[in-house]
Task: inverse folding
């Protein structure tokens, strides 16, 4: 009887250990899981309606989807979207309407309460407005060609729930490509003749070039220099024979023209013929200096007059035929001198 009682107690302990105890443990875990999942659970996602990259001036849309995936209502829900510094909000495009804070560069939606399972989406449009962040006066540190990231964060909050955030990144293609070309109105001149140079400046990129400056050192054999520009401030520094034009910002696709007029000095025969070369330089804030093409101008002797002497002059020279023959010899000599000059071109 005593042994039977011992066997019965052992059987009960086995049943408790391997039968009832696991069930109690699973029940306890279930209660803990239910307690952990109780309350509101916020979620938010963000996407753009373009894949990118975008360029300066592009207008594109954002869509933000949010919800409460918990089992209790979320109270006093707010959603705040902090815009990338390079873009601006397009006024009036938020749906539903939002409050825009220009100081914080952000949009805010007051969503009141969210019931369990509630999900919805809102949208707005943005414009790529600048190459550099707000508050900066130049496009540094952007290189002449780069891909920036338009990155922003949207956050949803409630009084009785943990906040949730989502980040979105869009590539922004930046190409700053100022070019400069130089043109001269003639390739051969004579001493004391006028000459005209034209500088054509253009930004072939999709973003503005800042601090654009043109420097053009002229040959000292040029004088009476006059310079005008249809953009910026033009200056000729006589002491260094240098033309300087400060253009400031050159927008994407913008062009400008610089007109330089001068006269070749009265050179001695020993200095003729001579070659004048000229090349301008463009500097800007986002890259290395750019040089124009090289132009060359040959300066030759002043062409001799080709008038036939009056008959009275021929008589004074010693008779009709003799005077005319002497004039022909001088004319031939002058022509040969001019041809010799042309050989140096």
Result:
């Amino acid at each position: 009887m005593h042994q039977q009682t011992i066997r019965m107690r052992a059987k009960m302990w086995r049943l408790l250990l391997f039968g009832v105890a696991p069930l109690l443990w699973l029940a306890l875990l279930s209660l803990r899981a239910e307690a952990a999942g109780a309350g509101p659970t916020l979620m938010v996602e963000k996407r753009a309606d373009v894949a990118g990259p975008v360029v300066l001036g592009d207008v594109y849309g954002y869509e933000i989807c949010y919800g409460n995936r918990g089992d209790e209502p979320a109270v006093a829900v707010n959603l705040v979207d902090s815009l990338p510094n390079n873009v601006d909000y397009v006024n009036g495009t938020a749906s539903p309407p939002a409050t825009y804070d220009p100081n914080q560069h952000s949009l805010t939606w007051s969503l009141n309460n969210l019931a369990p399972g509630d999900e919805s989406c809102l949208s707005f449009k943005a414009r790529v407005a600048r190459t550099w962040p707000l508050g900066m006066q130049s496009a540094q540190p952007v290189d002449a060609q780069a891909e920036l990231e338009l990155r922003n964060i949207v956050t949803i909050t409630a009084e009785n729930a943990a906040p949730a955030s989502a980040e979105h990144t869009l590539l922004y293609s930046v190409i700053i490509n100022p070019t400069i070309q130089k043109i001269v109105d003639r390739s051969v001149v004579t001493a004391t003749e006028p000459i005209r140079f034209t500088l054509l400046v253009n930004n072939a990129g999709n973003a503005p070039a800042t601090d654009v400056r043109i420097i053009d050192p002229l040959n000292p054999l040029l004088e009476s220099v006059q310079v005008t520009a249809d953009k910026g401030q033009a200056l000729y520094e006589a002491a260094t024979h240098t033309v300087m034009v400060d253009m400031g910002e050159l927008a994407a696709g913008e062009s400008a023209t610089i007109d330089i007029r001068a006269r070749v000095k009265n050179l001695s025969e020993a200095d003729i013929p001579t070659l004048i070369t000229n090349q301008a330089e463009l500097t800007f804030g986002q890259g290395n200096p750019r040089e124009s093409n090289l132009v060359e101008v040959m300066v030759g002797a002043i062409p001799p007059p080709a008038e036939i002497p009056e008959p009275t002059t021929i008589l004074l020279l010693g008779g009709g035929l003799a005077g005319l023959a002497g004039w022909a010899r001088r004319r031939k000599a002058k022509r040969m001198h001019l041809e010799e000059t042309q050989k140096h071109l």
